[in-house]
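Can't paste images in this forum, so I'm doing it all in text. The chain is below; anyone willing to post the predicted structure tokens underneath?
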Amino acid sequence: MRLLTASFLTLLLTLPARAATPAETAKATIEKSLDYLVKDQQPSGSFQRSDREPPAVTALVLRAIVQSPKYGPASEPAKKAVAYLLTQQQPNGGIYKDMLATYNTAISLSALAAVNDPALKPNIEKAVTYLKGAQTGAIAGAGGAKIDPNDPKFGGWNYGGARGGLEDVSNTAIALEALKDAGLKPEDPAYQNALKFVTRLQNNSETNPSAKWVGDDGGFIYNPGKAGEGGSAAGEYTTPDGKRLLRSYGSMTYAGLKSLVYAGVSKDDPRVKAAWKWVGENFTVDVHPGLAANGPESARDGIFYYYVAFAKALAAYGEPKITDKAGKVHDWREALIAKLASVQNADGSFTGTQKWMENSPTIATSFAVLALQDAERDLAARK
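Text version of the structure:
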């Protein structure tokens, strides 16, 4: 009997360990990152590591915390972060310090909405009012003249404040997500006006025939440019017949797709079909597609923001399987979870490139967690 027991134990010890499931991997990766983030909370309740970082940094961490079963909205880190964000709300309802008013307010609004506390309703309503008023076309333009609905800027959001800059797909998508999180419905004028703006930034000549730079890959660029010339972080190229086109790229395409879905546009709409075509032809979790065309040094620029937009858009679209241009089928949730688990640092953090502040481990790690949480939820909802 002893010999049999010893042999059985030896056999057990030599058997290969069971591989973790994607859901188990996501859970472990998320919890390790949250433990890393929580330990650096400041006495004020913020998660900013310097005065140069805006309140949205705290909001990113807060949203990740409240969406976690391990911590949740009743946890001490969450309560302290909420208290801090409320100190940053301005009399006009915006939640920001001195710059990037749209980004900061929208990201903070999504975080406060995720807390799901009725006591925060007045603060949420003020932030909603601020965001809706900041949409171009919702307020009078320069000199008191109304913005023409045919103006390429109409329906978009810029950075906000006195130096808001041009309206862009990124600010617009984040504002629309925040409004959705706060309970606005697709038929709200803010969504329907934003549809006009987003449609004008898609490389799809069928639905965007008047743009000078438009091609037909179905993806999205960043902004309309000062004189309609368009702007894309992925650069431009010239066709054999000499036409100047702008290159679509990952984060903006997923932001555009997400915005279309949030505004109630169906999968049969030519804009959604064109964006989905781009998704299949450019599917990857290894680089930031589009930006990689600028050279290998650009392939990881903004990649964690790309992962957030990727996960949020694909969860909203509702299709877990994507067929790439080679005909290979990918489960986007499993691919994303495996990739992020493979690049997580030993201390639980993630780090990106300096461009767009992703060299901040707080920002990169928060983005990674939020993307993983969307993938984790989608796995549970669509097994």
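Strands lie at 236-238, 244-246, 321-323, 329-331. Residues 361-381 form the longest helix (21 residues).
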